[in-house]
Automatic annotation (TrEMBL):
This is Growth arrest-specific 7a. GO terms for cellular component: clathrin-coated pit; clathrin-coated vesicle; plasma membrane. Keywords: Coiled coil. PANTHER family: GROWTH ARREST-SPECIFIC PROTEIN 7, PROLINE-SERINE-THREONINE PHOSPHATASE INTERACTING PROTEIN 1. Residues 121-381 form the F-BAR domain. The keyword Coiled coil applies. It comes from the Eukaryota. Pfam families: FCH, WW_FCH_linker. It comes from Takifugu rubripes (Japanese pufferfish). One of its GO terms (biological process) is neuron projection morphogenesis. PROSITE patterns: F_BAR (PS51741).
């Protein structure tokens, strides 16, 4: 979803931002004593307690680097012209230190102390998904949306793993069925002697092996496939939608507050311009009417300035709320992903354990065959066969004349 106005000011600084983020930008300036301090929750370096939040703020202001940039407070530097005439006000250049991208205020690169990551060296979600990014179709996508898509993709991967083991089970069942059928084959049924005993045991081992593979397939279903298939059921997607709607609503509120700031800023500019015009008219021609007009214009200009300050206050409060919820939700999604990976790891290990057990059972099945094969004795088999099938022991002799 696209938030904010699509205006782009072509300047050197904007070019840096545009090339990196490819998003429309809006300028705001900061000068003199800051009314607010850019603060972020110190979530990860303090004892956060059971709710994951600490009641203290930690000062972290911005520095370069898109991945680690977090939103900062917007500053209002326009001084309501109450007692000072605009004509007498000194005009000074104020250095711009912040930009607004899709209604979120960020620090400009290289301005102020370097911004620290919330969870250094952990590649945490809460540090790297603050800015929006355009998809291949050119639509602006919120950073949080990528985290939701990751969760959905992970759910799909888990489902496909379950399907994989389902196919594995079908192979095992078919293999067991064919082994059992082959064990009943009449082939070489008339083999005799010690070799015949070994052959009979070999055929029996096929039936035993079939039973092993059938048990293996049953355990695969109950201990691997089913857990993968049922882990985080249908309610999981509903939970993700709740996360999505919650963060999206906060972004909408932020966009509304930003629109209020821009409207108040324009109103103040109009009031200041009106005051300047009336002041110039007074300098040209003095009159009581012009003085009353100027007083009235000053009151309106002062009120417009107060309105702008109030709007900026509300904007910063809303952005702080969005920031807090983003950190909390990002860390929750990160926790869910860790749990998913560990869950799958456990059940894949169970598969390898079952596989080793199957190999052991198969080995025990063929051990009697090995023992009988070692006892195969061609001489003994010949003896047994001769005793059973001999036709006579008297050998022929020469004929007499």
């Amino acid at each position: 979803m696209k938030l904010g106005q699509d205006q782009f000011h072509a300047s050197t600084r904007d070019s840096w931002i545009q090339s990196d983020l490819d998003e429309p930008v809006h300028h705001h300036t900061s000068g003199g004593q800051d009314r607010w301090t850019a603060e972020i929750w110190d979530l990860c370096t303090k004892d956060t307690g059971p709710d994951g939040w600490d009641s203290h703020w930690e000062h972290r202001v911005s520095g370069p680097g898109r991945a680690g940039i977090v939103p900062v407070a917007m500053f209002c530097t326009t001084k309501p012209p109450g007692s000072v005439s605009p004509a007498k006000r000194q005009i000074r250049e104020v250095k711009e230190t912040k930009i607004t991208i899709n209604c979120v205020t960020f620090p400009l690169p290289g301005e102020g102390p370097e911004q620290q990551l919330l969870k250094p060296n952990e590649w945490s979600y809460c540090d790297y998904f603050w800015t929006d990014r355009k998809d291949p179709q050119g639509t602006s996508v919120a950073g949080f949306e990528f985290l939701l898509q990751k969760q959905l993709k992970s759910k799909q991967m888990q489902k496909e793993m379950a399907e994989f083991f389902h196919e594995r089970i079908k192979i095992e069942e078919e293999y067991a069925k064919n082994l059992s059928k082959l064990s009943q084959s009449p082939l070489a049924l008339q083999e005799e002697g010690t070799l015949g005993e070994a052959w009979t045991q070999l055929k029996k081992s096929l039936h035993d092996e079939a039973e092993v593979h059938l048990k293996f397939s049953n355990k695969l279903h109950s201990e691997v496939e089913k857990p993968l298939l049922t882990f985080r059921g249908d309610n999981f997607k509903k939970d993700l939608k709740k996360y999505d709607h919650h963060i999206a609503d906060l972004r909408k509120q932020l966009a509304s507050r930003y629109a209020g700031v821009e409207k108040a800023r324009k109103a103040l500019a109009d009031r200041q311009k009106d005051l300047e015009v009336k002041t110039q008219q007074l300098e040209i021609k003095l009159s009581n009417k012009h003085e009353e007009d100027i007083k009235k214009a000053r009151r309106k200009s002062t009120q417009a300035g107060d309105d702008l300050m109030r709007c900026v206050d509300l904007y910063n409060q809303t952005q702080s709320k969005w920031f807090e919820e983003m950190v909390t939700t990002c860390m929750e999604l990160e926790k869910l992903e860790v749990e998913r990976i560990e869950w799958i790891q456990t059940h894949l290990r169970q598969y390898t354990t079952l596989r080793h057990e199957t190999d052991m059972f198969n080995q025990s099945v063929v051990e009697p065959v090995d023992q009988l094969l070692q006892k195969v004795d061609p001489g003994k088999d010949r003896e047994l066969w001769v005793k059973e099938n001999k036709t006579g022991e008297v050998r022929p002799v020469d004929m007499d004349i």
